[in-house]
Amino acid sequence: MDQLKQIHAQTITIGLARFTYITSKLLAFSAMSDIDYAHTILNQTNTPTIFDYNSLILGYSKTSKQEMGILLYTQMRNNRIEPNARTFPVLIKTCDCISSLLQVHGHVVKLGNVFDVYVTSSLIYMYSNLKAVELAIQVFEESSYKNVVCCTSLITGCFNNGLVDEACKVFDEMPERNDVSYSAMISGLVRNELFNKAFELFLHLKQSGLVKPNRPLLLTILTACGKIGALDKGKNIHHQLLEESFTFDLEIDTALLDFYAKCGDIEKAEDIFIKMRYKDVATWSSMIMGLATNGRNESAIKLFEEMTHKGPVPTDITFIAVLVACNHKSLVTQAWCLIGKMFKVFGIQPGIEHYGCMVDIFARSGQLKGAEILINLMPMEPDEAIWGSFLHGCLTHSEICLGERAGKRLIELDPSHSGRYVGLANMYADIGRWENVIRLRNMMVERKVDNTPSWSFIEVDGVVHKFFVHDQFHPRVNDLCEILQILNKLSMNQ
DNA sequence: ATAGGGTTAG
């Protein structure tokens, strides 16, 4: 950037600045790294062109000052500079609410001659980004020319708004696919927890050799392996990353660290952490969470303290990680202090996960009253996890009345929610009040509550095995039950 | 002569 400033100074000294394309080139270049400097160049230009505005709006679209896009567009039009087709893809990217996007979309339609496939794909991307996926679909359907980018935009948009079937349909029907569209498809499946489908498609891609898996795709697959604990599969990706000689950078190293930690190889994760030259807040958070979920709670808390002294500024996610460690050690006061510190020192508003951790800590340690007060005080609607912690705490500390009251109130609040019946029923079952369990089950049938059961899974030799509660479908269910009994006995004797 | 869209780690 300093060099760029020198060049800029020189163009002014030797009089080159009057050649507008030289100044424009400087502006475009600096808009990528120093937006304020780029804006100064625009302000110093006597007759800014459409090139200058387009470059500057693009620059702002990549910063947090999104609102500058519309502002510059207005200023540009006041200066009687007409926008062209290249103005809109970048302007659309700076729209931070649906009303400004609708307004910009209106301008595109009104001008007519600026509507092209770049504008279409940007509109699809931005409408779905702002949670208006129906409008994205509408733009897509009304467009006469749909290229691979438009289709990919819509696939991502559908996936991010829960429209899984629609995303698959667009992918199946698109005439041409490249590495980015495969990447979008597979990462969308992973985000929607359709891991088997994602791995199937990845395998198909590798075997067919249609397109080469790119860096984002390999990172997505690695993350998916971590989420389902697929150690061997993930190790393969690790090797592939080495073979592809992608430069091992912050993102890849952090993804690897997180993957090994999630698969239980905490030593390997620590090894990567220690060897990393550049670590950012995601790296630290990942390591703290890895230690906490692997039972190394003291180390997690120690690492967090080290981070506050000489590491990057923690985020909301870092605090979740250290709260998990506190939870495992029943450090009620310390957890409470951390949440206070998070808000007062770091200005981070507690989210539902932070409240969730705290309720769980209270409930586990038997402070059910504290947990109840917190649930009533929290500014958002408590979710399943929070009520689950509370009910479980009521049960383990024999606070049956409190649990019963909470469970009943929950069902009244949302009679169509199966989890609320199941939570209370599980509590009755554990204390042997079977008549109440049966009553709740009947109530669910009468009220036609959708009761899709929960499930868990494990990957063995590349196959994901899925289990429901009391599921007897697995071919080796007897062996599995026998092993479970042995494990239960072992943990009882400890 | 200069300016545009889709996939990516906690």
UniProtKB/TrEMBL annotation:
Superkingdom of the source?
Answer: Eukaryota
At which residues are the PPR repeats? 49-83, 147-181, 280-314
- SUPFAM superfamilies for the chain: TPR-like
- Alphabetical UniProt keywords: Repeat
Q: Name one GO biological process term.
A: RNA modification
**A GO molecular-function descriptor:** RNA binding
PANTHER family under this entry?
(WILD MALAYSIAN BANANA) HYPOTHETICAL PROTEIN, PENTATRICOPEPTIDE REPEAT-CONTAINING PROTEIN
Q: Which NCBIfam families match?
A: PPR
Know the name of this protein? Pentatricopeptide repeat-containing protein
